[in-house]
Amino acid sequence: MVDLDEADYSRFPLIAKVRGEAAVVEPGDVLFVPDGWWRHEHGLSPEHAALEIRMGTGGRPRTAGSAVLAVGRTVEDRVTRAEGPREARHWMRVVAEAEEADWVDLGTVAGQRRVDMAQMVRDEVDEGLPVVAVVAAAGAGA
Hints:
Elements (H helix, E strand, L loop, with lengths): L63 H20 L1 H12 L3 H4 L5 H20 L2 H11 L1
């Protein structure tokens, strides 16, 4: 772990590129830190207190329709990151039609990466969609 007060730039050279924001929080103030963001805090007085409350993504169960949209957006984002915006549509179709064996050379790193990406898409669909949405989606294609 990096000590931000006494950073060892020889061990952690990339820490020099870290940028952040500063905020002074007064008693009664609330500072919202989005999920996945790092934070580093200093008390400005010898006596101070901090309370951290972590929130989930939502307590309401997803409806079948909203689950399809959420999973679709997640898959689209991950495939676009993996393959780039120009190739994302092609690879989403390849995975949807289970044709990756026709398009992937398993003897290459890129081929193995694409097989992993296809499995990630299937896992996301399996884990993210309620059974009702999967059955409805299957029925819509019939």
